[in-house]
Amino acid sequence: MIEAVGLTKRYGAKTAVHNLSFRVRPGMVTGFLGPNGSGKSTTMRMILGLDAPTEGRVTIGGHPYRRLPNAPRQVGALLDAKAVHGGRSAYNHLLCLARLSGIPARRVDEVLGVVGLREVAKKRSKGFSLGMGQRLGIAAALLGDPQVLLFDEPVNGLDPEGILWIRNLMKKLASEGRTVFVSSHLMSEMALTADHLIVIGRGQLLADMSVKDFIAHNSADFARVRTPDDAPDQRDRLAAALTEAGGSVRPEPDGALRVSGLPLPRISDLAHGADVRLWELSPHSASLEEAYMRMTQGAVDYRSTEDTRAGLLAQPPAGYAGPPAGYAAPQAAGQTAGWPNPYAVPPQQTWQPPQPPVSAPVPSPAPAPADPMIERDSEDAR
Amino acid sequence: MSTPQHSQAVPPVPPGAHRAAPQTAPQAFSGPPPGGHGYASPIPVRRTHLGHAVASEWTKIRSVRSTVWTLAVMFVLVVGVGLLMALALGSQDGLGMPVLAGGFFGLMLGQLCVITLGVLVITSEYSTGMIRTTLTACPQRGRVLVAKALVFFLLSFTVTLVACALTAFLQAAMIEGKPVPEYIDPQMLNEETAATGQAVASAGEWLGATVGAALYVALLGLLSLAVGTLLRSTPGAITTMLGLVLLPFIVSLFLFTESVREFGEKLREYSVLNGLSSLFRIPFEGGSADTGWPLLWLLAGVTLAALIGAYARISARDV
Question: Is the domain of B105 the same as that of B231?
Fold first, then answer.
């Protein structure tokens, strides 16, 4: 059991973690989610006594970590797969950790077998892949047969077989009654592994609830509706009818409609009333990924901007011959308006019928919107 | 809800079962224990102490190549240069310096290897990130530092002592008994040499050239370890130590004008190099009565102060 009360960490003017209080209970896998820079690793380090909290406290089984008489026998942690001396073999790395807490050397062979590194045990860890490094870190965490386990991004760099292995391992450890606390940014992974979620953004607690509750609280179910591809007017008609009936309608990239706020039978009735045939009407529940994105939208520290390549297009210097022949910008000029984040669009946005083709981006005789780069390229051809 | 496992909350296990228990531990448990009180390892949890940390640090220091390389280079330098000195001195008719003094030149270079190893013992943990693993496994950080200092000091002292003793024996065997040239001031000679006119090493010279020299270099290495803990950077700590060892002596050579000469002499007298050369009875400054031991105790005091600073720093700081 891990308990944080009013945990706060400030680095100078920047507050990494602010007034965080939560409990991680034994017997289940607790996922620790948050965007990059939200304070997950800082919190993990404070739990392990590596960083001292500015305010508040965090205890494991009622004790601050640094007061535990034999910490590795009670808490196992994977913080950073590369936190090993590369010149030391996997076996010796684990052996010096085992010595530190009085664990017999035979246990080292055992955990090497558990993580599947027995064959490379005598090799220097410098040559390990990221996945092998993760396995070595997990071996170190398991060494003391601890009741509390912390994993910071454990599936980073693992292959699908490794991901499945760690997922089952964490579930098994939790089923044995241990406390398992896993940070990850892979929502799909947490949906399969975690029973409980603690979500933070900008160092503050956003949610502390079971996975099921989390999805229910943070997302609405929706229906996918598809009209015949050969009759676009039917789609517009249906969208109008559904909006009028109080539903929220959004187009999907493949031409289907995403309807929320209306039960399935009602959608069917409205379609019938509008004389629209349906090719698909299916219920969907939002994924954990979506619920998470919706929740943390406002708390993302690092947001990317669209690469418009304006710096490349502006006034090439004399003698600059332009990009080599055959180079084409991956996106047509008319489509660079922005990379759409489907979750950033508020669900209330209503369906706009497609504009008449008068407002084509470039009035050009070419059949497709012409790319100015390609045009200039052909002029420069030698 | 909390279960302090380090107390008697673990199920009773007969003392003999401890060794066999890990074999079955991961498989033995299925399903949470009743009451939702969490997991309890079948292996008893023992309180750890400094002995565990020393065993761990010994495993660490012997399992990296830098230890082998730095100490091997030091050994070769000390014995090799000592042998060359003995050969060179042996080809001359008289002996114008103490019998064991030739060991100084190899050790002057060899000490740089010990300094490098002392720095690497701690800074390699910071540069690789290993320090987070170590301090997670042993949150009693002072204990880790003390164990590191003990293991490194004993290892470097032993290896240096063997190298110095071997060199001293070689020199004694090859050049002892040579006549002392007449231009040497008899005041500078030890009693036996002055009486017989033949170069002989006294007991004090033997002690200084072996135990004293090894202790001095091992202390320098320990000071490097403390500096490495304070700076947490390999290049920073090695540069600092090289500056500390070499700069005062070099600077003192340029302080020869009247106004600063006295300061230059003091600087030279208390320089790290003068301490080592005095132990071999060839002081750069301070006269023949200076045996090097006072400077060795001074270095020990400085090292202790630096270690106390390092202890306070590593205990308080975020890693």
Answer: yes
